[in-house]
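How a chain folds remains the central question behind the approach discussed here. For one protein, we set the task of working out the structure tokens from the amino acid sequence alone. The sequence in question and its structure tokens are set out directly beneath this paragraph.

_____
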Amino acid sequence: MAGLSGTTRTRGGSPGSSLPALDGAFLCSPLGGLMVAQAVLGLLVWALVADTTYYLHAAYSWVMFVSIFFWILTVLFLVTYLLQLQLKFYVIPWALVLMIFNIVATVLYVTAFVTCAAVVQPTSWRQWDYNRRAAASFFACLVMITYAVSTFFSFRAWKGLGSNAATSQVSEHA
């Protein structure tokens, strides 16, 4: 799958260069595009919730935790794959790590979406809070779907590595 097991490229074309190269092909891959969508939509979720009086409702603290935590991790994974840093740490089974990350993010975003949607009250005395919370619920649903689709693609990438992730990592770099 594009972006998960690319070839080692260096900036400037010199073989001894240690600068990481940007992998533009990763952004065109399904996982890369989904990571960008997750970063943008996740940012919208926590920005919309943060712009309300969320601290008055304990349920929104959970939504804020999930959205900020997974936004930070998604951005870190995106930078890792864009700079091809996963190639420097070839001992780590990146496809498996990404699949587990996407599974956990999907499950926790389901809880955050349900929590966010359940707490939205149309009779709120602050109409702008209602609108922002409703929009945050909508975007939380979209992020949840993108993580679920990413889980599917990362599962396919993980299965494509072979029957044993440890031996496939060794055989690729031996």
Observations:
- Helices lie at 24-28, 30-50, 58-82, 94-119, 127-159, 165-173.
- Residues 93-162 form one domain.
